[in-house]
Specification:
799 residues, mainly beta, Immunoglobulin-like, five-stranded mixed β-sheet, four-stranded mixed β-sheet, disordered N terminus
């Protein structure tokens, strides 16, 4: 407490000492109470100065101004005296009045207009406002006339150490790599002090660490935090809390201080090798496990984190390196052992592997801590499973001649149970692959026999599937594909490759090739086809034609003479025997048709028909047909043109003008009932204009032609009209060309919400209640007449 009081006194007297040194001569005349006096003098008063003042060689001025000072945060029972304004024009008769204006005049600073004393009436804060500019003036008390020009002066607020340092950006967070050397820079912090940095040591800060030693240190002036210990290990401690203090007054006792926290996190480096949790792993796997299945997982732990903990796994030794593989799981950081090849319990029951885990990212700075790898042993035991039968071959290829006898054996498949129990096997054919049931198989020994005859020309290959099933466990089955190739035998005779038809010109020459033919054989000899051609024995000496074998296995037919005449013989048939080279050889007879035709001089066939001789010279049958077709087409066009002209001049409905009057419908008279025959003309019903024929409409085109009815003779007026109308109605119903002139529409629905209700009287006869129709008169003028009619009817009923 005494130290704090001494510092406050020092803060109070220091500005006064500085003021004493820097003020002009007039300030030395301040009273003993340390108040500041601003004086004004005139040349007339210079002679009155004492000798001591003359020695100073300083002349007075009209207003000699300087700065005034006032301490901030001063609080007392009375306003604090800041200074005094005085002019030597004031003889003391109180005829001069002092006026103060400017910043804070009247609100913060108050002046005694008689004595010129300036007081601070409010508590000041330099951090809010450091100085005030005011204007002073001396005026006549009575007239308020200025005695001197106004002058400005400044009142400065003198700072005291009233603000502690603050860390505006705290708390702080920083990182530094683990295993860093001594003195590695971590971060720096900054504190601010609101006090005056120029005046005194109020804003001079010194930094120190209150908590966090001996791990970190701080530069007192720059606030740079550094590591104080080398090789700090993240795996031992990852996070540190450092408390930092900033103290003003240069760190001396009595200064104000502020604190903040800094959280330092050690980042990871790869300074730890991977390590397997155990040196020996045991796994078991069934022998029938699917390839690629995960058998087990091994993991090497690494105290590092992130990519520094990533490890790759490999199988470096063991008797199962070809059967197993290991892959790395980047998420779980472990190794997955998978099966690469099938296992067989009967062949080998266990395997031993040596696996290695090595870091992927190695930091060369810590290579001396290595090696960054570890190994472990993995033992895998194969478990026995009930396996399906195994065929001796994955596929089978069998061959059979197409003339093989039924039930003959064409091949055999074998299979065994790989298990130790060795169950017997039963064979069968998947009938989905042998829909025609052409093959059978012996269920015990797997011999495949022929069930139906084969024909290579229909199908060369037959693909079937054989099923092997364990007798003791029917769920264990295996399948194998069997391809059966049908071998060819010479069972088809050769024949012409196509249907040939030869043409012989009448003006042909002897030895001329009429046609070249080739043969085909459905069989497939190993050395290719070779055919022999010959004529029938009875036609060897054919006087008209001969044959010649060509090198390309084809045959040419030649004419022996010329002078063929189609009038004598139009067609010649030449049987040819074709034999193959099979064993035994087969042959067939094919007949070649040769037509005699008329040809041009250069041998182009023109006509092969005998009728061409009877046609006029220069015209063939085709030309005559074309001419007749043109004539018929012209006749059809003329008929259509005439028909269209007639239709254009006729009216749509053939009726006389005198009958138009019968189509007028009158709505203003009422019929007299069924006995009234004067309201219509019975002749209209009889249709006298249509008696002799059918009158079709011209404005429509009927889809079906209706046969016109026979005309009816005129009947007298006493005819039965009902029978007459029924006859006409029957004819109209059966006439598809007649439009529906008459139609009946039934309105049996009045609609919902009708105010008037139903006007129908069809149901009136079923009700015994009296009906009152007076309400019709209330519906308006449109129903007035109707209401009168019903009212009359009701009155007549009553009478």
């Amino acid at each position: 407490m005494p130290e704090r009081l001494a510092e406050m006194l020092l803060d109070l007297w220091t500005p006064l000492i500085i003021l004493w040194i820097t003020l002009p001569p007039c300030i030395y005349m301040a009273p003993m109470n340390q108040s500041q006096v601003l004086m004004s003098g005139s040349p007339l008063e210079l002679n009155r100065l004492s000798e001591e003042q003359r020695i100073l060689n300083r002349s007075k001025r009209g207003w000699v101004w300087n700065q005034m000072f006032v301490l901030e945060e001063f609080s007392g029972p009375e306003p604090i005296l800041v200074g005094r304004l005085h002019t030597d024009l004031d003889p003391g008769s109180k005829k001069i009045k002092y006026i103060l204006s400017g910043d804070g005049a009247g609100t913060i600073f108050q002046i005694n207009d008689v004595t010129g004393d300036i007081h601070a009436i409010k508590r000041l804060d330099r951090e809010e406002k450091a100085e005030y500019t005011l204007t002073a003036q001396a005026v006549d008390w009575e007239t308020d006339k200025p005695l001197e020009p106004p002058s400005e002066f400044i009142i400065k607020v003198q700072d005291i150490n009233d603000n502690a340092p603050e860390f505006l950006n705290g708390p702080y967070h920083a990182t530094v790599p683990e295993m860093s050397i001594l003195g590695t820079s971590v971060t720096n912090v900054t504190a601010t002090d609101a006090d005056d940095p120029v005046y005194g040591n109020s804003a001079k800060l010194v930094y120190s660490i209150l908590e966090g030693q001996p791990y970190f240190s701080i530069e007192p002036e720059t606030a740079i935090i550094k590591t104080a210990l080398p090789n700090m290990d993240r795996e031992a401690k990852e996070e540190y809390l450092v408390v930092i203090q900033a103290k003003d007054m240069g760190g001396h006792s009595g200064g104000l201080s502020g604190t903040t926290t800094l959280t330092v996190t050690l980042t990871d480096v790869n300074d730890n090798p991977p390590k397997f949790a155990q040196s020996l792993y045991h796994f078991s796997v069934p022998e029938d496990v699917v390839l690629g299945t995960a058998i087990g997982r091994v993991k090497a732990n690494d105290q590092d984190i992130g990519e520094n903990a990533q490890s790759s796994y490999d199988i470096i030794d063991g008797d199962g390196t070809a059967l197993f593989e290991i892959t790395s799981d980047a998420q779980a950081q472990d190794g997955i052992i998978r099966l690469r090849q099938p296992l067989d319990f009967e062949t080998k029951k266990s395997y031993t592997l040596k696996v290695e885990a090595a870091n992927v990212h190695i930091d060369p700075r810590f290579s001396s801590r290595g090696p960054f790898k570890d190994t472990a042993t993995v033992k895998i035991v194969v478990e026995d499973s009930d396996e399906p039968p195994v065929f001796s071959s994955p596929t089978y290829l069998l061959e059979v001649h197409e003339n093989a006898a039924l039930n003959s054996v064409i091949g055999q498949v074998t299979a065994r149970d790989p298990d130790i129990t060795s169950s017997p096997i039963r064979f069968s054919i998947d009938r989905h692959t042998d829909l025609e049931r052409q093959f059978n198989i012996n269920a015990d020994d797997g011999k495949i026999t022929l069930a139906t005859p084969l024909d290579r020309e229909l199908s060369v290959w037959h693909n079937i599937t054989i099923i092997a099933t364990e007798i003791r466990n029917h769920s264990q089955i295996s399948r194998v594909p069997v391809a059966i190739k049908v071998l060819d035998v010479n069972d088809n005779a050769p024949e012409f490759a196509s249907e040939y038809e030869a043409f012989l010109c009448e003006n042909g020459k002897p030895g001329q090739v009429i046609q070249t033919v080739s043969a085909m054989d459905k069989d497939e000899p190993k050395n290719g086809h070779y055919f022999l051609y010959s004529l029938l024995p009875e036609m060897v000496n054919n006087p008209n034609f001969t044959i010649k074998k060509n090198e390309d296995n084809s045959l040419s037919i030649l004419a022996k003479h010329n002078g063929f005449n189609r009038q004598k013989q139009e067609v010649y048939l030449l049987p040819i025997i074709i034999s193959d080279s099979g064993n035994p050889p087969l042959s067939s007879t094919s007949t070649l048709t040769i037509r005699v035709c008329g040809c041009s001089s250069d041998g182009v066939v023109q006509s092969c028909n005998v009728e061409a001789y009877v046609l006029p010279i220069g015209l063939s049958m085709g030309a005559l047909i074309a001419i007749l077709a043109c004539i018929i087409l012209l006749l059809v066009i003329v008929v259509l043109f005439v028909t269209l002209r007639r239709h254009k001049n006729e009216p749509l409905i053939i009726k006389d003008d005198e009958d138009v009057r019968e189509n007028i419908i009158r709505y203003d008279d009422e019929g007299g009932g069924e006995e009234d025959t004067e309201a219509f003309d019975i002749a209209t019903l009889q249709n006298p204009d249509g008696i002799n024929g059918f009158l079709p409409r011209k404005d429509i085109k009927p889809d079906l032609q209706f046969m016109p009815r026979q005309g009816l003779a005129p009947v007298p007026n006493g005819v039965d009209v009902d029978e007459f109308i029924n006859v006409r109605l029957h004819e109209a119903d059966n006439d598809p060309t007649a439009p529906p002139y008459d139609s009946i529409q039934i309105y049996g629905y009045e609609g919902r919400g009708s105010v008037a209700g139903s006007l129908s009287s069809l149901e009136s006869t079923t009700s015994d209640s009296d009906q009152n129709f007076d309400y019709l008169s209330d519906w308006g003028p449109r129903f007035k007449r109707l209401g009168e009619l019903y009212s009359v009817g009701e009155s007549d009923k009553e009478t």
